[in-house]
Amino acid sequence: MKINHNYDNLVPNYLFAEIAKRTNKFIAENPDKKVIKLGIGDVTLPLAPVVVEAFKKGIDELGEKATFKGYPDYEGYEFVRQAVSDYYASFGVAVDKDEILINDGAKSDTGNFGDIFAQDNIVLVTDPVYPVYVDSNIMSGREIVLAPATKENGFCAMPDENVKADIIYLCSPNNPTGSAYTADQLKVWIDYALKNDAIILYDCAYEAFITDDCPRSIFAIEGARQCAIEFCSLSKTAGFTGTRCGYTVIPKELERDGHNIYKLWYRREATKFNGVSYPVQCAAAAVFSEEGQKQIKENLSYYKENAKIISSALDELGIYYTGGKNSPYIWLECPNGMGSWEFFDYLLENANVVGTPGEGFGECGKGYFRLTSFGDRENTVEAVERIKKLLSK
Ligand SMILES: *Cc1c(COP(=O)(O)O)cnc(C)c1O
Fold it and tell me: How far is the CA of 258 from the centre of ligand 1 (A)?
């Protein structure tokens, strides 16, 4: 037998292992120093009380003969899909409940969606990039082209008319750069996709962090229904990283190569996926209730305030950065022309603060650094004070 040799082409991702190695070494050699981690890409606040209540109620129902449930629908229960549809309507985007599929998170669907596309499609990703888009396509043996995000375009990569692409991954607000596309910028991508007969796979896992008028959904933009699929998740919105629930939106009329995309994906899901557990779907629906929205917004405000504390310090220091406003991520230019890893060591040794070197997300991340607002307030404030003291010298 032979394995899938496309896996040989995966570049080992040492990023988080290398961060852990350097951090642990520093802690071992400096046991008296308090190291603060502003590198975490995971939420830290607990589930909202109404979510926990709904979750428990769902479990109780499974424990009673009269309310027991077996396999859920592949696309998710109607009550959750309706709740998601109403949520979209709350910010002015019309998405029908029958265009929504509930899943166990955005990583699964963004990583698996390529299953329904041929191998010889050209894939476009922005650089720097969330590694799932790249690695899942390397596993399938697809050619990948890069759209650079740089200081010049404010880390909002835009299409190059001379580059042909069939499948386009966009992430807005972006991980790792924190930048978000405006409506005009998204329209440029949509026009490019339509011209190329391409499909945009749009990841808006951080839409709940948007505070200005950047679109919360690609379907807020004209033409998107003819070329886009949207992936969202409750992971960052409602602290579901350990609970696992997300949703994918596929316009019913979206077709390519003589096939309906919704129907193809539904066929794929019916074959390889047996749905999300009932209690998790109950918990997810509670997120979209009036009380749920109120409660999750308290957590989101907490993270947003942390982001503001970090970005205000960078403003004071005169350091260039993107993000922080529509995103829990702050992407900064390493001061004094330092490299990403050089700045990592400098910050660890002199401020005892850990962040994420930007070059771990792609070539265009060289010389950049990611801080996150998912930590607790006290530590964020202390880390920022140390950074200010170190860099204003
Ligand atoms: C965290 C994150 C997600 C969410 O993934 P889940 O599988 O839903 O937890 C999706 N996309 C990006 C870019 C992320 O950073």
Answer: 31
